Amino acid sequence: MTRPGRTRSHRSKKKRITLALAPVAAVAVAVPLMSSAGAATPSEVTADCSADSDKLENCEFVDVQFKRDNLGPNQRVSAVSDNCGSTATASKTFSVSAAVTRTIQLEDGFTADAGTKLGNSFFEIGVKFNTSEINITRDDKTTTLAFSRTDTVQADSLAFFMWSAKRTDVSGFLRATYKEAQDGRKVFFAPAEGATSVHVFYPQILKNGTPDGRLWLRNVKCGTPEAAGLRNSTRALRSEPGFGEGGANVTDVEIPLSDVPAP
Q1: In 3D, which of 194, 199, 188, 197 has the Cα closest to residue 41?
Q2: pLDDT score of 232
Q3: In a domain, 26, yes or no
Q4: Structural domain of residue 225, as residue ranges?
Q5: pLDDT band at 25 (very low <50, low <70, confident <90, very high)
Q6: In angstroms, what CA-CA distances link 78 with 155, 209, 216?
Q7: What is the spatial distance between Cα 117 and Cα 107, in angstroms, rounded to a whole number?
Q8: Three-class secondary structure of residue 155 per DSSP
Q9: Which of 47, 68, 203, 263 is least surrounded by CB atoms within 10 angstroms?
Q10: Considering the domain boundaries, does residue 8 fall inside one?
Q11: Do β-strands 157-182 and 75-76 pair in parallel, antiparallel, or remain unpaired?
């Protein structure tokens, strides 16, 4: 009588073990299925294009709109000449140096090298916007503006040269083609198809070979907050207000580029 009882107990235990293992097996099967799903995100597309990833068959920039004569950052491009404490103007010689190159601004801050698929695409787009009227820098070669010039520094003032390069701003999006399909697709966009948040700035070049832009001499009254900011700055090319935007303590005089000697 006791033997059948033990047999029933053994079978019941085996069933319980089987039922307990079944959900675990189901979860184990589901994990690889979930990990293989999902298409490339815009940030992944940007990162792969910037790194010229081996996963890519191609990556290209698609232009949507453009704006010529776009002014770049306002930069201080000479040393600061000090005429503080003087009641008279002073004649000072300034050494001016500025450089421009093609700049690629992706939404997450990456920049593409010239030798990548993406860099080649930017060059090809640049060819499209290079005309007989406006010459632009299509590749990542640097073009410089360098000269010495004597100018007048106002009484009790600091003076230096400012520069803002003229650029052609072409905006659009990235189109990446992957070697292996993801979710049945090989083509993905960043940040989205038809978007205009990827910018490529092509510097505009004058016929004499120097960069085009706005150049001006800035005088700043000594003893003012603006002058204190200059003295405390450790950056040679720190960000500055634009032409005519410095306030009451700042005087700007534009210098025609025709007065600048050719290289």
Answers
A1: 188
A2: 63
A3: no
A4: 42-259
A5: very low
A6: 19, 21, 11
A7: 18
A8: coil
A9: 263
A10: no
A11: antiparallel
